[in-house]
Amino acid sequence: MNPQVELPVTNEPGSARLALSVALAGLISGIAIIGIYEATLPTITANKARLLREAVFKVLPGVSRMQQLGFVDGSLKPMGEDDEAVDEDLTLYGGYDTDGRFIGYAIPSDGPGFQDTISLLYGYLPGKGRVVGMEILDSRETPGLGDKIYKDAVFVANFSNLVADPEIVTVKKGTRSAPNEVDAITGATISSKAVVRIINEGQARWRDKLPAPGQEPPLPDPAETPAATAGSD
Amino acid sequence: MDRDKNLDTYQEFVKGIWRDNPVFVQVLGMCPMLAVTNSAINALVMGGATLFVLMGSSFLVAAFKKWIPKQVRISLYIIIIATFVTVADYTLLALLPGVHKELGAFIPLIVANCMILGRQEAFASRHGVRFAMMDAAGMSLGFVLALFSLGSIREILGNGSLFNIPLFGETFEPWVIMILPPGGFITLGLILLFFNWVAARKKAFLEQVVQAERESL
Amino acid sequence: MNELVWIFVSALLINNFVLAYFLGLCPFLGVSGRLETSFRLGLATTFVLIVTALCAWFLNTYILIHAPYLRLISFIVVIASTVQFIEMAIKKLSPALFKALGIFLPLITTNCAILGLAIFATNRGYNLVEGLIFALGAGAGFTLAMVLMAGLREETELSDVPALMQGTALNLIIAGILSMAFMGFAGLFSST
Questions:
Q1: Which chain B residues contact residue A145 at CB under 8 A?
Q2: How far apart are CA A11 and CA B104, in angstroms?
Q3: What is the interface size between B and C, counted as CB pairs within 8 Å?
Q4: Of C18, C54, C31, C161, whose CA–CA distance to C104 is shortest?
Q5: In angstroms, rounded to a whole number, what is the distance separating the alpha carbons of residues A51 and A66?
Q6: Domains identified in chain A, total number
Q7: Which of C2, C61, C64, C69 is the best residue to mutate to test the A interface, defined by the most A CB atoms within 10 Å of its own CB?
Q8: 8 Å CB contact of C116 and B86
Q9: What is the DSSP letter of B118?
């Protein structure tokens, strides 16, 4: 740039003016940011709630209503919007059918994968001790190899009826023989094992915390379920 | 504006696209950008967000330059840029949640794109609104073009597709490395090599012309 | 404990800031000409990253929980001013340390790795200890990448490189090969 095109400075502004202009800019910027935040917040919360609902319904076939449950003071309780105090590792989702009968839990879990942390959600029926669905929520596994953990329908189908107790075991592709075994993906053994390990860790974390079958927390009044209120505020 | 008299609107627009292309010629603003050029769509969205931020900030800086005290100008530019980036971030999160998830942390990092702050300091703060807008539009289109060519090269070779539409038959074995980080470095390196080659050819050609003229005299 | 080791090794090798996330490319390509300078810049960056992790944790815990939309602006403003303050303090207290590291500090504040660290740590919900370990790993990874790159560049200076390749084009291709080598670290934590 041409050095001669400096702005002509007629008088040196005092520090009060400097502070004032920064404060003014901050104020205007704050207003703009709050404006866009308020304007987009309803859509963003609705999107998030919809994605979560879709994931829960996918891993728990037959579920049409859900609520978030947290492990507080030794028992599983429904979580309200304001309860922020519960550790994320100690929350899960309860899935219910149209009549409000309990079906199963959708349990979030995460851990190291091949490349980066994998986080997933799996559906668990406590009465049968079975995993009935698995959905990868976030991962950065190698495209074309590790990403088969969610792109390969055959691998995902491993988790549609899987005995989870005492432990899920990964075996070489095509050698699955017991109901608690998962066929690994050829070329992505580490990612397959990581998925299984993450589910096993989720199971270990919740084994002593889930109430006896039949004792699950019931859905609150239908009008107040998170599914019905999500995104309305 | 007096000093704008010798500027040409069209020239200010076009220079950013080829001669002074921010990425390929000036190698600016690549820090956070290379990460999102693993597919054409990601590159386009990121480029679009950068275009919005650069145009908006250049407009404000050029329009209010008389009221911006010189001593605190950098802080004010950063506040302006960060505001536009936040706006772009929330808008994308609301409208394109899928793409936003893939771009993730890299949208806020537009703030750290040295190209944007550079244009405020070098151009927008010294020229009228019209030329500042032309400069910003040219620079950001050049930037979009650069991101898009990187993104499409990497997606075509690394995934055998463009905008997720498969281009080759089943027999094509994708070069997975191209959509992984090394592919980003190597593709940009090869494109810069191509630009060097074009520049060298141009220089050689001009020298030949000069030589021929001298001989004909 | 395992969690902390994973965070550290992941930031240091598997998801190296420079070679996998392209963060801090400007100094990586610009300043990595000399081994000595690269190492010192790496140390100074690690220091700023740790300060950043502290600032980000403080902001996230006490301020941004009430006003999440101010995240970006407050990160930039608070980190830049904290680093400036530390720079002044070092200049006063230890001229020798200032000579070794201080001159780099203003340069580092504008490095995208700094903002990147704050944003990644927030998105992943790291607590204070996890954030500090993450910063330490990211800084060590940055230093490692810088030093490796500088060593390679010192070698290429003595070799016969085609004129067209010289400069950024060559450096980017070297970086690509380094990045490929670092991909070998993937899976380090999940082979059992």
A1: 176
A2: 45
A3: 109
A4: C31
A5: 13
A6: 1
A7: C69
A8: no
A9: H
Number of domains in chain B: 1
Of the pLDDT bands very low, low, confident and very high (cuts 50, 70, 90), residue A3 is very low
**Domain spans of chain C?**
30-182
Which three-class secondary structure string do you get for A122-150? EEEECCCCEEEEEEEEECCCCCCCCCHHH
Please answer yes or no on whether B90 and A36 come within 8 Å at the CB atom.
yes
Residue A227, amino acid = A
- What does pLDDT average to over chain C? 84
Query: Do the domain assignments include residue A162?
Result: yes
As a residue count, chain A comes to 233
Cβ distance C140 to C122 under 8 Å?
no
Instruction: Judge if the upstream peptide bond of residue A226 is cis by omega within 30 degrees of 0.
Output: no
Report d(CA A113, CA B20) in Å as an integer: 42
In a domain, A19, yes or no: no
The CB-side HSE value for B200 (13 A sphere, CA atoms) comes to: 11
Nearest residue of A to residue B71, measured between CA atoms: A18
Q: Backbone phi, then psi, for B126, in 5-degree steps?
A: -120, 0
Q: How many CB pairs under 8 A join A and B?
A: 70
**The pair of three-digit structure tokens given for residue C177, joined into one six-digit string:** 């090969």
CB contact under 8 A, C69 and B34: no
Residue of B nearest to A50 (CA): B97
Cβ distance of C73 and A194 shorter than 8 Å: no
Low-confidence ranges of chain C (pLDDT < 50): 192
Long-range Cβ contact pairs of A213-216 (< 8 A, separation 24 or more): A213/A126, A213/A127, A216/A76, A216/A94, A216/A102, A216/A126
| Cβ separation A32–B83 shorter than 8 A | yes
- Tokens 């080659």 belong to B197
What's the confidence (pLDDT) of residue A231? 40
Query: Per the confidence metrics, is the pTM higher than 0.90?
Result: no
Domain hosting residue B123, numbered range: 2-166+174-216
* DSSP track, B27-96: --S-TTTGGGTTSHHHHHHHHHHHHHHHHHHHHHHHHTGGGS-GGGHHHHHHHHHHHHHHHHHHHHHHH-
Contact C131, C3 (CB under 8 A): no
Whether B34 and chain A come into contact, CB under 8 Å, resolves to no
Q: Which residue has the higher pLDDT, B21 or A226?
A: B21
Q: Kindly determine whether residue A143 and residue B122, on different chains, have CB atoms separated by under 8 Å.
A: no
> Which 3 state secondary structure label does DSSP give B119?
helix
Predicted confidence (pLDDT) per residue in B131-157, tens digit? 888 888 888 888 898 889 888 998 888
